[in-house]
Design a protein that fits this description.
InterPro entries: AICAR_Tfase_dup_dom_sf, Cytidine_deaminase-like, MGS-like_dom, MGS-like_dom_sf, PurH-like. Belongs to the PurH family. With 469 residues, the chain is α/β, with parallel strands linked by helices. It contains 16 helices and 18 strands. The chain has a six-stranded mixed beta sheet, sandwiched between helices. Strands 13-18-17-16-14-15 form a six-stranded mixed beta sheet. A two-stranded parallel sheet has the order 1-2.
Amino acid sequence: MLDGRVKTLHPNIHGGILARRDQKHHMEALNEHGIGTFDVVVVNLYPFYDKVTSTGGIAFDDGIENIDIGGPAMIRAAAKNHKDVLVVVDSQDYPALLEFLKGSQDDQQFRRNLAWKAFEHVASYDSAVSEWLWKQTGGDKFPPKLTVPLSLKSSLRYGENPHQKAAFYVEKSLSEVNAGGIATAIQHHGKEMSYNNYLDADAAWNCVSEFRNPTCVIVKHTNPCGVASGDDILEAYRLAVKADPVSAFGGIVAFNIEVDDALAKEIREFRSPTDGETRMFYEIVVAPKYTEKGLEILCGKSKTLRILEAKKNEKGKLSLRQVGGGWLAQDSDDLTPQDIQFNVVSEKKPQDNELRDAEFAWLCVKHVKSNAIVIAKDNRMLGMGSGQPNRLESLRIALRKAGDEVKGAALASDAFFPFAWKDAVEEACESGIGVIAEPGGSIRDGDAVDCCNKYGVSLLFTKVRHFRH
């Protein structure tokens, strides 16, 4: 009735599901009303998730009609009365169900597992409906209540350290259906991914995906230690390694273009710039695509090398992070140099090549842990300093790594400089830096401007901060 809206919502069905066989008055009530019992309930819900995430989209009224009512009601009823009724919501459980029915002994643990799976299935279904309806209301990204459905992808050998147990879950919310990233990457080769592998691969892929030109990014402990862009991706790879070959060894290499046989050979055979002999070793290579020959060559580098094929991340995603007793939610930091203004606040204006270097350094520094400093020139990272409690120490680390190449290079800082004289700004100027890009906003911005003017260095304010904790 009601165009099919009411089919199974009837006492004859729910009474037969919910009746407790060991309760005499329950069975008497069934007999009185002529209601039979159900021993097994198998339900396939309306494909709401598939419908609302289809490529062509779905009209609001059609979405509403694809919300299953009777199915979840039967599932919940059977799961509640799982002592007497088996409930199945996954076709992969059919063989186990048939084996159970053939047996002579009743296994309550088997019934409980099916009941748990049933409630989890309905909860996930309802979360998709809730998420979809919230979007239809025009609500913002931060609803009063937030449910994030997760599905176990794999158990991991351990967490960050061997004494920590760990697992990897894939998000199943509607917003993640067509999302790219490491969670949905295809692993073509190598050992199983570890907890730290996922973190590092995610950092490398997030960074390299932001560059428009062919780019190589090398990451170690979630920090990019080498970045280079250029039409010649082989040279870009070499320069990315050169930025910090010691850190690059054992790191994660990411490309934003297809890995062909020439690039694969270079990855496989390239020797460390530190001695010219040691063949570079990597944990992971990640790229959007591989040629057949390129993949074959890479697979021959090492049995353990993990080779991932990932889709580009979508912009505008919600970023979640756990703290004790709660979660922090924020927009992902998606800004690119094209989204902001590099305002010249010094007497000296940067040359076109210096401005490009500043933009490149700025795009790198947003992926480095705070306090972060990146020095770059000619579309390549020369050095970076990360994770220091004060900005001066991060600067000194970056300068040491950049070495003599610092002359005329660009420097980007993820946040403003609280001090200039006899501090980070002056040390940068004295080292030979040609242009500095920073957010500005300090009460001592004037000191930074005066310092740069004294040394003839260009200073750019972006008015955008990029803390990364």
